[in-house]
Every structure is written in C-alpha cells, then in structure tokens.
C-alpha cells in the first residue's frame, strides 16, 4: 500500500515555528556578539577612558547589525507572503469562471474579473456591498437563499441559474457551486462561490435530445410504414376481388330489383376502403409518385371547388395567391391529398361560423431557420399556408398529431392517417412542414415543396 504523506503543520503552528527560529537565531548571534565584543574591548583598551568610548561604539555597531539583520529577515518574510498572495490572486483572476467570496452576512469580500462583468463594476466597487446593491430583489433573495442552504448544510451545494451580464447584456446559464468556508477553529467565515457558464452545454444537450427524439420518430415511422404497406397490399388484393365480383353482379342484375341496393352499398364501402388503402400506401411511401414542375397557384385554384364543397356552409374559404410564385416540384395528386386533409382538419376544428385561409408564397430556408420546421433542409421552396379560426391544438396533443392512427375526433370520424400522410408526402418530396397553433387562437400549417430545378427537387423524384 502507498504510504500516507506526512501531514502538513497548520498555519498557526507554522507561524510559531518560524517566529521561534528567528528568535533563536537572533539570540545566538547576540550572545556571540556580546561575548566576543567584550573581550575585544578589554584587549584593546586597558585604560578606562578608552574602554568607555569603545563600549559606546560597540553598542552602536550592535544596534546597526541588529537592524540590518531584522530588515533582512522581515524583508524575506514579507516578500514570501506577498509572492504567495500575488500567485493566489493571479490564479483566481486567470480562472474564466465567476469566483467570489462573501462573509456570512452576504457582504462581498473578494471577486475576480469574470464576476465583475456580471455586476458591471470593478472589484473595489463591489467589496463591502451585497447582492441587493446590484441586482433586483427577487434575484438577490434567490442568491441569498442558496448561500444560506450551503452554510446550513456545511458542505458544497450546486444549482443552476439564468443571469444577465451587466457588461454586454448577454443572458447565460450558470452552474453555481457554493462552499462554506471555516477557519482553523471551525468558525464559519464566509461562502465561496464559483459559477461556470454552461449555456453552450445546455444548448448541445437540448440539440442532442432533439436529434435522439427525431431518430426514434424516424425508426418508429419506418417500422409502421413497413407494416402498413404490407397490410395495405394484401388488403388491396382482397378489395379487388370484392369490387370485381360486386360490379359483375350489378351488371348482370336487372334494374329495379331490391337486391341492387345491397350490392351498391357493398361497392360503396369497398371503394371507401380502397381510399383508405391508398392513404396507408401513401403513409408507407409505397404509392407511386410522379412529381413535376407545378404552378402552385393554378393547382390550388383548380381544387378550390372541391375544397369549397368539403368546407360546407357557415365557413368562409379565402384564397390568397402569392405573386411571382416559383414552380414547385411535387406530385399533383399528392398535393391534392395534402390540401384536402389540411382543409378537412381545419373545418373540423371550427365550431360554428369561421374562416379558412389558403395562401401561397415563396420561402428561402437558411440553416438557422431549419430548427423551426419538421423535415427541414435549407434551400428555396414554394409553399402553401392553411390557416383556420378554430379551437387550436392543445400543447399536450401537438407532439402526437403526426403519429399514424392518432385522432382527437369521435369514433367513426376519421382514421387518424390524415396528418401522418401529410408528413409522409412532405418527407417523400424532401419538403418542410411547420405547425403554429395555440388553444383558442386557431391553427396554421405551412407546407413547403422544393422549387423546381433546385438540388432538393432532384432528390425527390422517387422514394
């Protein structure tokens, strides 16, 4: 086992030992001087008159030598203390973290330049004052409470706090370590604080958590997509048999027979199921895609009559085409599916009279803009915005609205595939999607598709 290092003497013990060493050295030199100088005087001055003069001279020489010796010893002692103090001050001032020391009453005793930037004052202006002289009362109360907790615990305490630097006005997240300080007798003399800027680390942690959530979402959607695609294909094969036989039976059945009504209901239900299958295939990204350079304004204008019938009476459908709109690289049928789903959702969110607004515009996303969008990528896009004056989407629901089969509608009113399909189509076209909503303040969906002829559109041809 390694041997324990010898314990260092305490500061009082070290001071006593140093003083004793100086005193003994002084006493030894004084004794030798007195003994030798007396004998020298006796040998040189047998005459009493001469002896008196030499004794006086000996005294002055003794005083001079003693003063020089004390000056040398005290100079070394003070220089050593000053050097250690300078080294400690340089160390504290070099640390990039905020460092400060308060007494038990919260009065500042010392701080470093990094802490000066927090209060926007020099150390000489901070010493002797408290937090209440520099920050609002609520923040000062918080600082004081954390001081008391560290002093009461008798050990370090860590907490995080947002502060605004008086110098520059930057708002940073600080991880603060507060440690009670006691003297050799165990009496509390103050609280040492060290604050480290962890704003960037906090940002990185949030970004990492966001990326992990996106990865999990992508894996979940991929698994559900495979399952939905497989089920949809098998289901579509069975529907083809049902529709073929039902159509054949209708063709061979005479008009006016009561059985035709039942067959027509079978055909109607089968065709509705076929639409559901198409949606599942769209979500699974197995539906054929034929994107082309499309005039958004013309495509939406052509679809307005259908959308108007979907909205019904009591809700106003407003169309605001954008000027000089870029051509979008998108599959027309899938664009119609996106608009139909968004308008139907907007209609269902409006209780009573209301308004749904369709608007197109050009969008240019930069790297720093992508954090506000789903499925983002920097570049140029043609986009459409669908806004409603409905009830909005609750915060706890917003994280789930793009999940397959998730719906807030009553049973029998929708499959929950609408927004999942919208997201799948946007992803397939390498577009971008954004939701803006608040309970009681309506909802806005923005859907962007790559501008025709750009690099993003070149990668969105086929899944």
Explain this structure.
The protein is of the alpha+beta class and 463 residues long. It folds into four domains: 11-90; 95-197, 2-Layer Sandwich (Beta-Lactamase), CATH 3.30.450; 203-287, Helix Hairpins (Orthogonal Bundle), CATH 1.10.287; 290-463, Histidine kinase-like ATPase, C-terminal domain (Heat Shock Protein 90). It is built from twelve helices and twelve strands. The strands form three sheets. A five-stranded antiparallel sheet has the order 2-1-5-4-3, with helices on both faces. It has a five-stranded mixed sheet with strand order 7-9-10-12-11. A hairpin with a 6-residue loop joins strand 3 and strand 4 (171-182).
Write the layout of secondary structure elements.
Elements: H1 11-44, H2 48-94, E1 98-102, E2 108-111, H3 113-119, H4 123-126, H5 137-153, E3 157-164, E4 171-182, E5 188-197, H6 199-252, H7 259-284, E6 292-294, H8 296-311, E7 315-320, E8 328-330, H9 332-349, E9 354-365, E10 379-388, H10 395-398, H11 418-428, E11 432-437, E12 443-450, H12 455-458
Helix pairs in contact: 1-2, 6-7, 7-11, 8-9, 9-11
CATH topology of the largest domain: Heat Shock Protein 90
* Name given to the CATH architecture of the largest domain: 2-Layer Sandwich
Provide mean pLDDT, rounded.
Answer: 78
Largest sheet: 5 strands, antiparallel
Overall radius of gyration: 43 Å
Strand content: 15-25%
- Secondary-structure element pattern, one letter each: HHEEHHHEEEHHEHEEHEEHHEEH
> What is the CA-CA span between the terminal residues?
66 Å
The coarse overall form would be: rod-shaped
